[in-house]
Each structure stands twice: as C-alpha cells, then as structure tokens.
Amino acid sequence: MDAIFEQNRGALLSRYQAVQQAEAQMEDLSRSSAPEEPALFAQIDRVAQARAELEKATTHYLLQIRKEMDAEQIKRLDKASRR
Questions:
Q1: pLDDT over 90 at 9, yes or no
Q2: Quick check: helix, strand or coil at residue 2?
Q3: For position 81, what pLDDT does the model report?
Q4: Per-domain residue ranges of the chain
Q5: What is the pLDDT of residue 17?
Q6: Are the C-beta atoms of 39 and 81 separated by less than 8 Å?
Q7: Lower CB count within 10 Å: N or C terminus of the chain?
Q8: Over the stretch 66-81, which tens digit does the pLDDT of each residue have?
Q9: CB 18 within 8 A of CB 64
C-alpha cells in the first residue's frame, strides 16, 4: 500500500495545489474593488474543475488501495466508514 501511495502522491499533491491556486485566484477576483462577474464566474468554473480532478485522483488512489485489501479488511473498512 505504501508503493501505491508513492505512485499517486505526485498526482494528488499537484491536484491539491491546483485547487488551492484556483481558490486563491477566485478570492483575489472577488475582493477586487470592482469584481467582474464574467471573470469571477469563469474562475468558479476553474475551481470546480480543479476540485473534480482532485476527487477523481483521490478515488483512483482509494480504488487501487481497496484492490489490495482482502475481504476482511474491506469489511472492517466499510464498517468504520459508516460510523
């Protein structure tokens, strides 16, 4: 599982940083003295896309981990996630 994490770490980190950057740009736009609605809405779309890419990368990573687990481990994980 450590190897799977190492394989995915770069992608997860870069996508997380992309979300952070897009959110910072959106905040800058919204705080300007005269925010332009089209530019702000376009940035909202970029933030949403960056978040979606991060979610996809995270799901891909978690599915890889789950494939390495045996049935008992999956059962315990599912039980813990329902709490």
A1: yes
A2: helix
A3: 84
A4: 2-81
A5: 98
A6: no
A7: C
A8: 999 999 998 998 888 8
A9: no
